[in-house]
Amino acid sequence: MELKRQSKYSGNNLVYILKDGLELASVPLSEKEKKYAEKRLEDKAELIFINRLDGWIFLVVPKQDKGEEAFLEQCRKKGDEIAVRATEEKLEDLGILGNNAQAVLAVAEGVALSSYRFLNHFTDKKGKETSLKSVSLVSEQLSDADVTELSNLVKSVCQTRDLVNEPLSHMNAERLAEAFTKMGKEAGVTVDVFHMQKIESLKMGGLLAVNKGSIDPPTFTIMEWKPENPVNEKPIVLVGKGVVYDTGGMSLKPTANSMDYMKSDMAGGAAVGGAIYAAALNRLPLHVIALIPATDNRPDGNAYVPGDVITMHSGKTVEVLNTDAEGRLLLADALSYAKKFEPQLVIDAATLTGSAAVALGHYGIAGMGTAKPEVMQQLQKAGHEVYERVVEFPFWEEYGELLKSDIADLKNLGPREAGMITAGKFLENFVDYPWIHLDIAGAAFLMQPDGYRGKGATGTGVRLLYRFLKSMVG
User: Are 214 and 295 in contact (CB under 8 A)?
Assistant: First the structure.
């Protein structure tokens, strides 16, 4: 679907964004339509559908009593509802009009993200696609650059969703690296992929241990966006967990309601790849690097087992208590490797723990780390702006004590309580720079539809990280 800015929309399917009922007078409605709209407004309706013989009128009147961020989220949600109705009615185009440029962009964002479909494996796609082919944004306050930026961001989210929705049969570690390479070529991002021999030479013991049960080799992908004259002297490094499928390894997961969606365990890796892709497409003047260690985690005759001790890239030793706590092992190697870039800041994203999903559901992201409070606050602000909200959890030293091992430097699992925090404290052992850890386990993949986030892969993390990176530009 194409998003485009126009000074005037000549089609018959119009979306009007109104500040309140008083603005209804500016909408070209018949007397009958106006009376109907007034009655719906009296009933506190925020979205009004008017069906004409030659098209549709959508009146969007979001509540504004909870602040700008909540208002724009309501606009996105109304965009989702409009997209659903548009597809039901087989509409091919929409025009979105309003005096508030940000509201116009938000409604368009909701429409575009709601229109995403993952249809790669249907032999007959008829009736499954969205009918919408173009959305025109009409506002005097909008520029072509605004619409291009949104279009590129939506494209990046949808690309990320595609990666996460692909099953292991079509997206192992090598194919994931190939997908990142293709994205890099398109956007102007330099991509370097390490394969088994290089990974072994770097002694990435965490990645190699998890990969021991797989018949497919691991990969370690480095993506770099370095424009001319970036505003940052030292790079911002994004690190993403790339477990393309997680059985739990020898600590096997139960099949029902657990293993069946584990193709999504690389959602953090996909998100950081999508974020740097968006940054490059929109030419952010910021030096950004993404690191994605990738493998699947399966049981096999040579698989690593509980009780093993492994030596990580950093040289630290880890006692493995549970092979289903594998994501932190990959991330630890990547975080250790990130030191070579002397980063200004490192942010990792991972579907790391069920504890994060239990604590926050799909409404938030668990955050913690060692970066200065103002950096975390800046990230949280970005999260509220795009409604991928980050909840900061305590990072007290006592949680780290729970990872002491009797036979190695540390163990890879703490007690059940505060599991998302002890997972973060494990990772802390491998960083010596400002760092934030994001556990996106609850929000990355949905079993039921949730508005414009859809069902299945949500692309969580792309919009958050892009908005944060943009805020770093100033």
Answer: yes
